[in-house]
Write a structure and sequence with these properties.
The chain is α/β, with parallel strands linked by helices and 405 residues long. It folds into two domains: 5-146 and 306-350, Rossmann fold (3-Layer(aba) Sandwich); 150-302 and 375-402, Phosphofructokinase domain (Rossmann fold, 3-Layer(aba) Sandwich). Helices cover 37% and strands 15% of the residues. The strands form two sheets. Strands 3-2-1-4-5-10-11 form a seven-stranded mixed sheet, with helices on both faces. A hairpin with a 5-residue loop joins strand 10 and strand 11. Helix 1 (18-31) crosses helix 10 and helix 5 crosses helix 6 (183-191). It starts with a strand and ends with a helix.
Length: 405
């Protein structure tokens, strides 16, 4: 006779390692006498009359362990408090709900945990932090799973694009996923030695505008021209759009649609195309003859097979879920430290008064960021005189002046 069941759901977008987490959890709990139910489409059908789920067995879990993508169908559906019910949990004798996702999935899990407590349902809830954006507020230097694999794959693409630029004498304007934070763009750009990296966190003293970002690109292009280099690449985090005013966004003449969480549906348009077009307009005004091409890095890196780091890390997180369950923990995020320690990070401690989990932004005050920032190719005061060959006002293209640092 089964001890009860464990329900697992995956919310948001895919990230390398989801199947590894699901498989590890399933194998541990099945071995300990539990049924493991995998919900399809996240929260979407959980509270309906016919929840969409499958029962996982050991052989299936073993087979999907190292696969990319997600065997369980995913959804960004965000349930309202009024939709919550206890029926699914009672009917299937659910002892543990495991949610795998980013900040929105974690926020919904936090609200659901409160609901279950109010209704005196004895079910534990543990969240596994998943996002290639690396923007959940975990302890310092702990990544969200999938980030390192996506960064690795993105770096391969960025290096190939950069080689194309070197070979053909072109610049490439690359836009990377990263809904609010610049971790992925920065990680890829730093790994691939891109001469200019633009992330939203850099604009701590000024508004994020197209004009400032275009000036940063021109600054890098001119700096390289002074060095006799006619190629290069700029990588920009799509997260800049989340810090731009509506008036500024409309200057691109692109009308964005929004998802159910109020986020611009950036995946429906090419941000790289927008930036590249605006750059070309500016270069033509300046009579600087430089060709540039747009490239997107996003969906290509979400469903690849996880690298060894994430296979090991996701296994630790999956095993950590079992460890925390056995300790009686609930309403928490599982933390797996490099030394093997497993700890709970309670959702109530990182959520605001509405239960929303605030994203972790890139730390632009860190020494690791400053090291890369100070090495980027851009016009400095010592370049002003030489840069006048291309720019009548080179001081306006100095990063310190653009960002008011």
């Amino acid at each position: 006779m089964k001890k009860g069941s464990v329900a697992i759901l995956c919310g948001g977008g895919p990230a390398p390692g989801i199947n590894t987490v699901v498989a590890t959890i399933a194998k541990r709990f099945i071995s300990d006498g539990y049924a493991v139910l995998g919900l399809n489409y996240g929260y979407k059908t959980m509270f309906t009359e016919e929840p969409n789920f499958i029962e996982l067995n050991f052989e299936l879990a073993d087979r999907i362990f190292s696969m990319g993508g997600s065997y369980l169908k995913m959804s960004r559906y965000k349930p309202k408090d009024a939709e919550f019910s206890t029926e699914f949990f009672s009917k299937h004798n659910v002892k543990l709900l495991v949610t795998i996702g980013g900040d929105d999935t974690a926020s919904s899990a936090n609200r659901l945990t409160k609901y279950l407590e109010v209704h005196d349902i004895k079910i534990q809830n543990i969240h596994v932090p998943k996002t290639i954006d690396n923007d959940l507020p975990l302890p310092y230097n702990l990544p969200t799973f999938g980030y390192h694999t996506s960064k690795n794959e993105g770096t391969k693409i960025a290096l190939t694009v950069y080689e194309d630029g070197r070979t053909s004498g072109n610049w490439f304007i690359v836009c990377s996923m990263g809904r609010e934070a610049g971790h992925l763009a920065f990680g890829i750009g730093a790994s691939a030695h891109y001469p200019m990296i633009i992330v939203p966190e850099m604009f701590k003293n000024v508004e994020v505008t197209y004009d400032r970002m275009i000036k940063m690109m021109v600054s890098s292009i001119v700096k390289r021209m002074l060095l006799g280099i006619d190629y290069g690449g700029v990588i920009i985090s799509e997260g800049v759009y989340h810090f731009m005013s509506n008036e500024e966004i409309l200057k691109s003449d692109v009308h964005f649609s929004y998802d159910e969480h109020g986020h611009p549906e950036l995946g429906k348009v090419s941000k790289a195309h927008i930036f590249n077009s605006l750059l070309q307009v500016e270069l033509n005004k300046l009579r600087i003859n430089v060709k540039s091409r747009p490239v997107e890095i996003g969906y290509e890196v979400r469903c690849v097979n996880p690298i060894a780091f994430d296979l090991r890390y996701c296994s630790s997180l999956g095993n950590g879920v079992k460890e925390l369950f056995d300790r009686g923990e609930k309403g928490c995020i599982v933390i797996a430290r490099p030394d093997g320690r497993v700890e709970p990070l309670y959702l109530k401690d990182i959520a605001d008064e509405k239960g929303k989990i605030k994203p972790r932004l890139l730390d632009v005050e860190s020494e690791s960021f400053k090291l890369i920032f100070n090495s980027m190719a851009s016009i400095k005061e010592s370049d002003y005189e030489d840069a006048k060959k291309y720019l009548s006002n080179p001081e306006d293209y100095d990063l310190k002046n653009i960002l008011e640092l």
